[in-house]
């Protein structure tokens, strides 16, 4: 029989309260369990001592018998010093999806085109600023002849 140390939900709607239980892996989440070894109240502050209450002796016995903790329960057991818990390593989880990557690529292409257009406009403005200085006397000469 595969044993799991997991959370069993209790509490009312929008006010969760969990019992830390040892159960058969095939049993439903809130269904039959073998033994209750603690509780978890996520509504309390993280520094509150009553947020996680765990019977470490019972938990240690069940770990020796082969019970596998879930991620959340392993975190609690790691805090208690019974299990070495490490943060999960999934480098692909933080990457955006395919459509989002396409949108990002389109935005980068549009930004690059805007930068190139801005540089071209600056270059044209610089040329225009240099060119009228040379042509200005010629225009003054034509105006004087017309008078």
Automatic annotation (TrEMBL):
GO terms for cellular component: cytoplasm; small ribosomal subunit. Residues 122-135 have a biased composition (Low complexity). Keywords: Ribonucleoprotein, Ribosomal protein. One of its GO terms (molecular function) is structural constituent of ribosome. The keyword Zinc does not apply. The keyword Ribonucleoprotein applies. Residues 99-121 have a biased composition (Basic and acidic residues). InterPro entries: Ribosomal_bS16 (IPR000307), Ribosomal_bS16_dom_sf (IPR023803). It comes from the Bacteria. One of its GO terms (biological process) is translation. Residues 136-147 have a biased composition (Acidic residues). Residues 84-147 are annotated as: Disordered. SUPFAM superfamilies: Ribosomal protein S16. Belongs to the bacterial ribosomal protein bS16 family. This is Small ribosomal subunit protein bS16. It comes from Aquisalinus flavus.
């Amino acid at each position: 029989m595969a044993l799991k140390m997991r959370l069993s939900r209790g509490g009312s709607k929008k006010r969760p309260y969990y019992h830390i239980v040892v159960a058969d892996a095939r049993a439903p989440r809130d269904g039959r369990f073998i033994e209750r070894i603690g509780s978890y109240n996520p509504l309390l502050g993280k520094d509150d001592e009553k947020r996680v209450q765990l019977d470490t002796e019972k938990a240690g016995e069940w770990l020796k018998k082969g019970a596998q903790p879930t991620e959340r329960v392993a975190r609690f057991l790691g805090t208690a010093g019974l299990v070495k818990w490490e943060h999960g390593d999934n480098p692909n989880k933080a990457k955006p999806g395919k459509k989002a990557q396409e949108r990002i690529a389109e935005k980068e292409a549009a930004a690059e085109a805007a930068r190139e257009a801005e540089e071209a406009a600056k270059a044209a403005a610089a040329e225009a600023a240099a060119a009228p200085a040379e042509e200005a006397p010629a225009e003054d000469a034509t105006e004087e002849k017309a008078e």
